[in-house]
Amino acid sequence: MNQHPPQNPEWFNQQQPQYEAPPAQSPNFQNQQQQQQQQNQPRNNQQQAPDQTQDNPENMAPHTKRQLGGAAVAGGVAGLIVGGPILAAVAAGGAALAVTSRSKTGDVARAGGDAIAATGDRLKKINEKHKVTDKAGKSIMKGCKWVEKRMTPKNSGNNNNNFNTTSQAGSAPPS
User: How far apart are CA 16 and CA 30, in angstroms?
Assistant: First the structure.
């Protein structure tokens, strides 16, 4: 149900903004406005204003190699999980490019890059303390030796096997 405001002139005058005519403009003021408009418009021989090009270092946000690397790692891992190695490379490049932009996206990418880099530093300290990579390497080698031992035929030292290395192709196996 719509309720209409009361129709009294006092209420109407209170709700309406008061319009004031602009002060008389001098010719000098108009010239200044025209000059500002011309400065803000890109020249005809330029496709973009200089501050909007990607190649201009002034357009790039201040960032560190640490932020750039961290964002690339985060983008690469996310891309690998979602779509495989090709998407991982594209996402890593996109995240690294985002770090350089002066925008909210760039701010988020730089913060994410810092967080990933800090996580990497923490993992390095844990590895130094607990020797995780050394232990993992030794375990992998032990597992490979176990598999090799299981895959090797038990009578490999006996010449009475069906794998004759001196026979010619197409000849009958030894009887």
Answer: 30
Calpha distance 50→39 (Å, rounded)? 12
- DSSP letter string, 34-89: HHHHHHHSPPTT-SS-GGG-SS-GGGSPP--HHHHHHHHHHHHHHHHHHH-HHHHH
With 0-12 / 13-18 / 19 or more C-beta atoms within 10 angstroms meaning exposed / middle / buried, residue 74 is buried
Backbone phi, then psi, for 64, in 5-degree steps?
-110, 165
Give me the torsion for CA of 19, 22, 24, 27, rounded to 10°: -150
Total-model pTM = 0.49
What is the distance, to the nearest Å, from the Cα of residue 102 to the centroid of all Cα atoms in its chain? 15
- The 10s digit of each residue's pLDDT in 74-104 is 999 999 999 999 999 999 999 999 999 999 9
Distance CA 17, CA 21 (A): 13
What span, in angstroms and rounded, lies between the C-alpha atoms of 109 and 95? 7
